[in-house]
Amino acid sequence: MSENHFWFHKYFFLLLLVLWIRERERERERERERERERERERERERERERERERERERERERERERERERA
Questions:
Q1: What sign has the CA pseudo-torsion 62, 67, 70, 71?
Q2: Distance (Å) of CA 41 to CA 24, 35, 37, 45, 50
Q3: Residue 43 CA, distance from chain mean position
Q4: Distance separating alpha carbons of residues 15 and 19, to the nearest angstrom
Q5: pLDDT 10s per residue in the chain (71 long)?
Q6: Residue 66: DSSP 8-state
Q7: CA–CA separation, 5 vs 10, rounded Å?
Q8: Which chain regions cross the lipid bilayer (predicted)?
Q9: Measured distance CA(33)–CA(40) in Å, rounded
Q10: Smallest Cα–Cα separation from 20: which of 9, 12, 8, 32?
Q11: What counts of helices (H) and strands (E) characterise the chain?
């Protein structure tokens, strides 16, 4: 009985250890995915900012064109 008891606990704790390690790996993967999502969001924001800057530049160009037509 005692030997069976020992093996039971040994494998039980090994199982817990494996489950704990797998959970930590899943958590790390979720964190990596969140970081990738944050990076994609930052990239989208940079792209929106570049688009706003291009629009401002086009507006300045149209304004300069109107100034030339008035002159």
A1: negative
A2: 26, 10, 6, 6, 14
A3: 11
A4: 6
A5: 688 888 999 999 999 999 999 999 999 999 999 999 999 999 999 999 999 999 999 999 999 999 998 87
A6: H
A7: 9
A8: 6-22
A9: 10
A10: 12
A11: 1, 0
